[in-house]
Protein 1
Amino acid sequence: MADVVVADGLSRWFSAGDERVTAVRDVSLRVGERELVAILGRSGAGKSSLLFLCGGLDRPDAGRVVVAGEEVSALRGAALERFLQRTVGWVFQSAGLLPLLTAEENVALALRLLDRSEADAAAGARAALDAVGLGDRAGHRGAELSGGEQQRVALARALAKRPALLIADEPTGQLDTETARAVLAVLRRTADAGTAVLLATHDPGAAEVADRVLRMEDGVLSATT
């Protein structure tokens, strides 16, 4: 199983007045193809900061991260933008749909940004919605969907571009137990289909679908016992 994510010695710190707060402390991590790695930890433990470093939304103060063969921490300008658009799919706690667009239009928009034709983007959007079990809701506007449905549309939007890496940051944080299980099941199927999945969560149910469960505390990543 080839490594999609290779992070070595990542550290990230921030200034808080006269003090320096370390959000990520000397973290090394590997995530392979078809692997779902869950990171558990309380709020403020550094999970989101680590995900942002792995996904290219932030740069480390020390260490390096390589995703799908590209050294993310060295990318700048157009190269970084291309990486963010094509290599990584993101799902956050809030679905972030455009409420006046339909589910299909929300997903297709992500593909149009990749210069896909209107017809190709629409077909890709429908296929992605079918994959998350929402093909019958494709014509409903974002504001007409339940919270769980919106989150699955957000998953479809991330998956439609077929990223090498899917990063999910607390995707079940606002969902009831049954809906959260459905979202986790989609993440499991995504990994089984070949995508590397990195999940940060409070949800103990993640352990049931993950290949590995790690714990983060005070910026330090460790294996669970």
Note: The chain has one domain: 3-223.
Protein 2
Amino acid sequence: MSFQDTDGQGRGQWERAGGREGGGRARAPRRSVVVSEVSQLTPQMVRVIIGGELNEWGATIPGGHFKLFIPQGEGAAMRTYTVRAYDPESARLTVDFAIHAGGPASSWAQTAKPGDAFQVSGQARPGYMPGESAEWTVFLADQSALPAVGAALELLPAGYRARALMEIPSETEKLELMSAADVEINWIIESDVPCQRLGEAAAALDLPDGDGEVWVGCEADTMRQIRGQMLHERQLHPRALHTRAYWKRDVANHSDHDTGDDVD
């Protein structure tokens, strides 16, 4: 999963084919897709490979996000997910779902099987690529953002430096992440309070020398805590900081537009 799936009614009726966003920009029509393959990566992570109307979908930037519409009653529950991979030749989309109790997308992923039909948004929004002058990236993420980090690491070039600090619920949730870059991966096991240890690790982190960037994806309050530290205590330039809330404690279907810029 990308932006965490929690209890609550989705906004499926809000985004209609040919509808418009709040700023007036027309959305591309939804695409009809089907499940092609399902595999269990870890006890709490399910990978679903999707086919269907995905020709020229355009999800080429790692960790981009899109809307997924899960059939629910007479409508659909809308959730935001990360593009783990997209193959333009086969027009197949890979999505990793972190399983949490109660959410409609998590529940769907646990029982998904080849042939199951649903819809996705007409195109994906861009993900993360380091700036041209960046020499390194530090990734700070919880399990909900792990697919985005994995996708970004795979496209980093040889010789680039990266460090990933990732909080997961247990040792069994570790994944093998591939990259041509020089990558150091640190797994943090979650405490009773999700993201608490990630926030502590961020506060104690020594950033590498040289020009670099910090990417943060996790719970909304922890993201703001880290963002504030990086801007005000570490004096990181705002353009070198990329932050996004993937979920918010006690909030269903938290906005995928939350970048925490209110702490600037």
Note: Confidence is low (pLDDT under 50) at residues 6-24.
Protein 3
Amino acid sequence: MSDPRKKRSGLSRLLRTIFFVDILKGMALTLKYFFKPKITLQYPEEKRQLPERYRGLHRLQRWADGSERCVACGLCAAVCPSECIYIEPGENENGERYAQVYEIELLRCVFCGFCVEACPYDAIVMTDEYELSDYEKERLLYTKERLLAETGFGEKPSV
């Protein structure tokens, strides 16, 4: 004996094939969005609006007098889950500490922002710069000179 459910499913499949039901559903969906405004951005000319708390490229800050804020305490390197920050401390002629070597390896960085939260001097910030790709792996190792470039100035606290 034949099952009536199998006949019904075979018949409905035949009718769907004859009347192009799936194609008509697809065309209806296309027409639904055809007359709505487009949301596509022309990327190089139009930049995407980023959220306020977006975490992009790192930057090292300077004080108002131009000196570096980083005192090489190592808290940012200690809290980093991917261990992408390398710091070597040094002292200047006044006996003040500074980061002699400060490197961030962006290929290992997960952009979590823990380094920013851990810094007691607000020496490191995350910008909204997101165009970080490069053809050479070596250029994704950001040195202190690259991280200090084009940064703002702030007030130096009284000691």
Note: The two ends are 95 Å apart (CA to CA).
